[in-house]
Amino acid sequence: SVQRSSEGYVGGAMGQVQGRSGLDVDLLTKLSAGLEVLSDDDLLSAAASFLLKRPSLKERLKSRLLSVLDFEEPSVASPKVLAEMGGITVLAQTGFASPRIHCAEAKTGHAMLWTTPPGLLLAPSGVDGFPSASGWNALRFPTSSKLELVVNDGGSNWIKPATGGNFIADGEGLWILRNGQLQRHEIRDGQSAPAPEVAAPVVKMDSCPAGDALKIAEDGGILVLFQSGWKTPRLHFRLGQADHLPWTTPPGQAMEASQIVGFPSSSGWWALKSSKVQSLEFVPNDGGSQWLKAPGGQNWVISGPGAWKLLDGRLGKITRTAVAAPPESTPAAPPTAPAAPVRVASAAKVQSQVAMPGLSLRSLSANLTLRELLKSKGIAVLYRTAWSNPHLHGRALRGASAGEWTELPGLALPAAPEEIGKELLDGAAGLAGNTRLYLALLPADVQGLQFVFNDGGPHYRWDKAAGGADFSIGEEGVWMVSGGRFERVQPPPPAPATPEVVSVSRIAVTISWQPLPSGVKGYRVFRNAQQVAALSGAVTKYVDTGLHAAHDFAYTVAAVGTQGILGACSETVTARTEDAGKPGQVSALRIAKASGKGVTLEWSVPEDNGGAAVTAYLVHRDGKEVATVLSGTAEKLTWTDTTVTHAATYSYVVTACHLPTRAELREKVLQQRAASVAPEEHDFLLDVPEDLNLGEASPPVTACAVDELEVGPCKEQLRVQQAEVQQKKVGVVVFYKTTWGRCYAHCCARQELGWTAPPGVALEPSSCLTFPAAEGWMVLCLPYARSLEFVLTDGGRSWDKAPGGANYKVMTPGVLLLHNGHLDGLAAPPQCPTSLTAKAVDGSRVHLEWKCPAEEQDEAPVKCYRVFRNGRAIGKTESTTCTFMDKNLFAFTDYEYSVAAVNRQEVAGPLSESTSVKTELPGQPSEPRNLRANCRREEGHLTVHLEWEPPADCGGAPVASYEILRNGMVVSLVEVSSSRLRSEAAEAKPLDPEAAAEKRWVRSTCSYSQLSWFKDALTWDDTEVQSGESYAYEVRAVQLGPERAGELKKGGLVQRCGSRFLDNVLSDVIGPACEPAQVRATPFLDAPKLGEQRCVITFQAFDWDSHKAESWYNVLQGLLPELRTAGINVMWLPPPSDSVDDHGYLPRKWYVLDNHYGSAAQLQELICSMHEQEIVPMLDVVVNHRCASLQDSAGRWLKFEEPDWEGWAVCHNSPAVPGGTGAGVTGEPAQYAPSVDHSNPRIRADVSAYIHYMMEEVGFRALRFDFVKGYSPQFQRDYVRAAGSPFAVAENWNGDPNGLHEYVRECQGTMAVYDFPLYYTLKRCIHSNNFEDLNCNGRLAGIAGRDPARACTFIDNHDTYQLAVVGGCFGNNEQVLRAYALILTHPGVPGIFHWDYVRGSHVREKLLQLCSIRRDANIHSTSQLNIQASGQGIYGAIIDNKVALKLGTGNWSPGGGWQAAVSGHEFCVWIRA
Length: 1473
Description:
alpha+beta; disordered N terminus
């Protein structure tokens, strides 16, 4: 351990105190001793209190707890000790106030887990020689040995390597980050080296002089002119394009305000000059997060000396014409950082601009009105915006002269006076939220104005005219800019004529008026000087309702102009309402709720209150007044009758009244109104005559004092339940089978009662014998419901609805069955079968026979019969036949049988009378089933793996072992474990293979599964095989012999069911051998990897019609020798799993490998042959989506097999099949099949297990992932890594190389991609005979030019060759050969499409020749490409100085020392002579 030293630190074993001074050590030692005596609770309390007082410590503790890395502040000050300690210490010098390190630990075979952005806060440095005052900060990672990192300021400023990417600390020790470089701290002669003086790369341009641009450029070098609205643009650049040249430290060098003639700084021009450089690669930015890149996200490149300007997103060289008359237009805004919308004045106009005064605004009066503004002289601009600080950037116009533009951001706009906003009615309505109205009042001498608006900066947002032009005003007046509209404000409309009173009632007045001839958008109606209505311009009549009787009302009308300006009001018209009358009937009286505890009524106020207030309601029950309900101010009223008897029926009516009839309530109401309403209204209510007090009673409503959704008990006998509902004519009973742990019915008995609160009424486990709870049956028993509308739920996200997403509906009382999405009334269950007999055929089989039951009128026909052995259901008949053969039994054993009839609704009747039988002498077991054999390499040794299933019939005694025969000779004996024999014998019954199939995945005869229930017991590995030899294997079942039977009895096994088979077993009872399984001992090839520097040529071994062959796998067998000879070494096979469609891209059962391309056995034989021919099989991994095998209880296709999934595996927003309850789709949802929820850990485990099985058991060695856009790249990356990181390619159909490059980055380089950008470019070039686009600055177009190790190039595939969206197939035979000549000689991993391979013998011959050339020259994915020519009619390139290619009609050759190897129409390939 490290002891105290002159540096002032102390280190030691874990638990010892460390500090920087003696005082610190003593203090910490005392504190540690004091803390030891505290209890856990006291210690936690003290820690929490301390954290609350030290926020910085609290934040650091939070970071430590949440971080994916173990980190700490360096506890020592010596650089030497830090360099020699374990782990990694990072010292970084920055100018940031609070620098952070965003990092991840790099471990082989593990996913990189990055810190949460912006990362961990670096601590001020206390390391000797690296003072925090000089900007040094530090952090230590004690358990890390390799880090990938970047540093930032906690915001948008990041420090990264000049070459891009991230910094990498590759090893333990002390690492120094300074001036954009990361270096390991060195120890020299046992001492720490001084702090590294890492010189920042000298990347700098000169100051720009004033003068003419072309004259300055004549001095040599490059002059860059850039027009922008940024406050101080910066140029991030390097002086050339070579990869080794350094870049400036981001954000780069600040540009200077331009002094170049014709490019004034007042118009937003900036400049930089370098006298020596001949080329420049650069990106302008605002010094923060806004960067202006070239189209396609590229850097700008200047390839030669001269004066260059960047304007409107275009980079061009300045000529004498351009200087004489620069463009008179506002530059277009960059995509991420809009430039200031300023115009570049021509040289001819500079003098007139200088002579004009600057633009300014007049002050505003707070009481200024719109009418006054319209009468004023000069120009005024009203602007409606949500910006909090809008500015007007513009210049004054006088005839042909124009003033200077305002300095950015322009003139701050004051808010418009409040009165103007009120007069602009539509403006006021549009000012909701944070929208405001602003006013620019210009001086009277300003005759015209050219302008735009902005938000005040610093990263400007601009508001311009249509098409991005400037706004322009050429005459005085008031103008409005709002929502992109620019128009002159017109005077308000005149006042309409005096309105007329059309009709008057107790509660309403109707008025009308004459319309104005034009310029009217709408009308406003005012009652007693208060606005009561806003109407459209086509409406000239208004009904004012809800008025008091016997009252006078004054009305005026005002017009609203088309611009939303309110005009003057009309003359007033007066109307008086009629005298008061009786209130009308209450509205919408209904039973809101009923139960045995009470009945709740609900109603609404009368539509006609009689012209006076309604203050009370009288409630009558069965003709007697039972309550007076005071109205208050609510529109809906309720009252609950609590004096009810359970299940009794009552009739209710409600009557409205102006005042309560009871004196004490009337006095109470009058007192309340006296305190709350105007005196004249109070007096008016007193004047209502008594005979007008009560209104008309409502129609009666009837209620039963019981909750219709009250749950009752379910009867044991289905017939009793049905009889009860039929007799009472009330009740709804629904039986439902589910796997949910809890089930609820969200339901509604009647619409007026409303729906239950979610999740609803809980279903109970069924007590009905016909639908036992043990089988998953639940019941909803509502004995008082007469109808029901419902859906079922598990209380969470899972719902069961009727087909089409509708609700289930029950219209009449009854007993119903809900099954597979269908709700049907239940017929009476069948009667029990009669005359059941059982006869022992031998020691393992029993024959049953019975008579069918009688069928009554209300019963559904019998569909089949369910058979029970010893009280356990063992199977059912296939039809209505009344016989059944039970097999696989034990000899000398008593068995009891009974039978139940099952109708077409799957409802079983009662069990028949039971019968017993004793089995006889045992016989031979039948042959084992489904023997499978495949070859694998385990721990470097060649092994043949066997797997089989037990015989269908044991013969009367347990199968205790299996003989393994190789080429007809017994080579091994596999024994069944004694524990299994004991468990089977204890119950006197073997494990029935057919019944056991219910416990495992249902599989076809020749499928391959590693998850069968018999996997551990019934497998055997043959390690004594020779490579290249063929073997035939058989398996025979051997019954339990006397010796092992004795061991079982000695072990205390007690035979049950009267069985004596252990006392009567025979020796050496061996059954027949199964069908032989043939296998050739060929080891699997090693899985290829991305980026290997060896020739790889892939072959897509199918097209869209391949499935039509009798066995496509057998067709491919015949192609293998020819393909191998030509050098093709990877074959992409069609999807191998069982599928809904013929092509395999709608997979259903992953582990069932029989499909339209052939059987599983044929697939296995093909893969073994491929390994022999050294051709790697590539698996088509289709896991984005999956089709179900069965419907669930709601009739939805959401039950999956092999592996077994349900609705939880499907994304809840998958459009193909609704009802999934998984998380949301993490990519593009599939429209044709359910999208799989890859965020579910179980799904990911199943996908990884499937891929592992297909590679290790079946023999695939490379992966192709289908439709990767459907789910997140992080899952795809994890699947590839879980498989051992083999060669993997993704079908990411994207023609944008940036998008594909980003996808590869998100996969962290584990996945290659099909080069769709090159496909589109090459197709276009060959068809046009113009190859210019193939050359991207010396690199090949597409991903092959950016990341060739991860570019899989192709000409067509099973999609592109037959889809109209890409124009069909690539081209004719000659065009296709030219394309293949390029990809088979160039970097990347080329692929040949089977459909192209069989186009014709001429094409086939040329393709094989091209493949041989690539193989012999060992052209690989990262071979060196040198493009010699690319243009109209010609493309020439040399690859690895071994192969040369020419395409097109033009002339080109590689020169001497080459010889033509293969040629065709408009192409030639040379190899070295």
